[in-house]
Design brief:
Order of helices and strands: HH
Shape: rod-shaped
Largest sheet: none
Oligomer: single chain
Number of domains: 1
Structural class: mainly alpha
Helix content: over 70%
């Protein structure tokens, strides 16, 4: 398994954990009408879940950007190698 695939799986699991945290906290908030009892769940569950979800999605965006740039670098390197080969071939034909 590649490190990219591993990191995507870990970040997706982290995002899912954030969503589950939000859902559990929301469900617990809905069960009570007393604000004093809702506040701890709102702070730790909902806000914490949103923070974890935002962190995971931010890192997923960074990974996607790095992957795109790596693909572009590889394509550019292939173009440079192909151009150098073509130039070398043209110089060999000129010397004949």
């Amino acid at each position: 398994m590649t490190s990219l695939r591993r990191s995507l799986i870990v970040l997706a699991a982290l995002a899912l954990a954030g969503l589950i945290s939000i859902a559990v906290a929301w469900r617990t908030l809905a069960d009570s009408t007393v604000v004093a009892l809702q506040l701890p769940y709102a702070v730790s569950g909902v806000i914490g879940g949103v923070a974890v979800l935002g962190f995971a999605l931010g890192l997923l965006a960074v990974q996607a950007s790095r992957r795109r740039e790596a693909i572009e670098r590889a394509q550019f390197n292939r173009l440079v190698v192909a151009s150098a080969d073509l130039l070398a071939q043209l110089q060999v034909e000129r010397t004949r």
